[in-house]
Write a structure and sequence with these properties.
Length: about 300
C-alpha cells in the first residue's frame, strides 16, 4: 500500500482492490506493487494493464469514481498528485510529469452513462519516451514524449466506489509481440472470458484480444483456427455448442478490430480436451480456455 487504506473484496465474482478509507483531498488509496526495490525498478519499455469498474447511481457526479496512475517517486509511499487518472468523464493529467495539465474529454460513446456500471480494460504502453493509453480496444491518447524522465516506479490510486483487478506490469511496451515472427504452433489463452453459460465476451478480455491482433498484424501471412474449450460442468452436448458459439464470438470480435475474417476459422471442442483435472476449481478454470492454432 501507498497511502490510504484498501482491501481485497469480492465484486461481480472477482477479487478486486477497493477503497476502505482515503487520505488527502482526493480521498483515495494508492496500491504499489511489492518489488525488491521500492523505486527505480521500471524497465525502459513496459506495459501496464488493469480492469476497472465504476459503480454509479442516478444523481451522482460522473467525475467520480476514478482510477489514477503514478509513475514517479522515491522509496517512500506515493502521495503526490496522479500523473494521470481516468474517470467516466475524462482522462486527466495533474502532476505535469507526463505532459501539461490539460484534460482530455472522452468521446460520447464511452463517456458518462456509457462508461459506468460496466467493466473496462485499460492498457498503457511505454516505449522510446512515448506513452500510449488504451480504453478497451481503442487507443484514446498518445503522449509523444513524456515531460519528466526517467519513469521509475508504479502505483495505482483508487477513489470512491471504483474497483480494480487483473493489474499487470510487464517489460516491453509493444502490446506485446509486435514485430516478432510467430513460430509457435498455438497460443493458449485464459484471458478471454465470457458471461456464465453465454458467448458474450467480457470487457476485461481486451488485453488478450489486443495481443492476438498485434500478433496477426505483425505476421500478415499467419492464419489461426480459434478453438473454444469448456470445463465439464453441465451437459456435454450443450458445452460443445457453447464452445463453438464462443469461438465464433472471438472471431467476430477480431474481425471488428480489423483482422480479415478469411484468416480465421473456428471450432468448438466443448469439454472433450481437458488440459487439467476437472475435479478441482483450478483445474476447471484452466480447462476453460481459447486456443489460437496456427494453420
Amino acid at each position: 500500500m501507498g497511502y490510504g487504506q484498501g482491501q481485497v473484496n469480492r465484486f461481480d465474482s472477482k477479487n478486486v482492490f477497493a477503497l476502505v478509507s482515503g487520505e488527502g483531498g482526493d480521498h483515495a488509496a494508492v496500491l504499489e506493487p511489492r518489488m525488491k526495490k521500492k523505486s527505480g525498478y521500471m524497465p525502459e519499455a513496459f506495459t501496464v494493464e488493469f480492469d476497472m469498474y465504476s459503480p454509479h447511481s442516478d444523481g451522482e457526479d460522473f467525475r467520480d469514481p476514478w482510477v489514477g496512475l503514478n509513475f514517479y517517486g522515491d522509496d517512500n509511499p506515493i502521495k503526490d498528485y496522479d500523473d494521470w487518472d481516468l474517470s467516466p468523464e475524462s482522462l486527466g493529467f495533474f502532476s505535469g510529469n507526463l505532459k501539461s495539465n490539460s484534460p482530455y474529454d472522452l468521446k460520447d460513446n464511452v463517456k458518462d452513462e456509457n462508461f459506468v456500471n460496466k467493466w473496462h480494460h485499460i492498457s498503457i504502453a511505454y516505449r522510446n519516451k512515448q506513452m500510449k493509453i488504451y480504453l478497451d480496444q481503442n487507443r484514446i491518447y498518445v503522449i509523444p514524449q513524456v515531460a519528466t524522465l526517467p519513469i521509475n516506479k508504479f502505483g495505482i490510486r483508487v477513489s470512491g466506489k471504483a474497483v480494480v483487478t487483473n493489474i499487470r506490469l510487464a517489460e516491453g511496451g509493444g502490446m506485446n509481440m509486435i514485430g516478432k515472427k510467430f513460430t509457435d504452433a498455438k497460443i493458449i489463452t485464459h484471458g478471454i472470458t465470457f458471461d456464465v453459460d453465454k458467448s458474450n465476451i467480457k470487457p476485461e478480455s481486451m488485453g488478450t484480444l489486443n495481443m492476438i491482433v498485434d500478433v496477426l498484424k505483425a505476421n500478415p501471412d499467419l492464419k489461426f483456427e480459434i478453438d473454444g474449450h469448456t470445463d465439464n460442468t453441465g451437459d456435454a452436448a450443450h458445452n460443445l455448442t457453447l464452445s463453438q458459439q464462443r469461438a465464433n464470438a472471438v472471431k467476430a470480435q477480431l474481425v471488428s478490430m480489423g483482422i480479415d475474417g478469411s484468416r480465421l476459422t473456428t471450432k468448438g471442442f466443448g469439454d472433450s480436451k481437458p488440459i487439467r483435472d476437472n475435479s478441482t476449481p483450478d483445474g476447471k478454470a484452466n480447462n476453460r480456455r481459447v486456443e489460437f492454432v496456427k494453420i
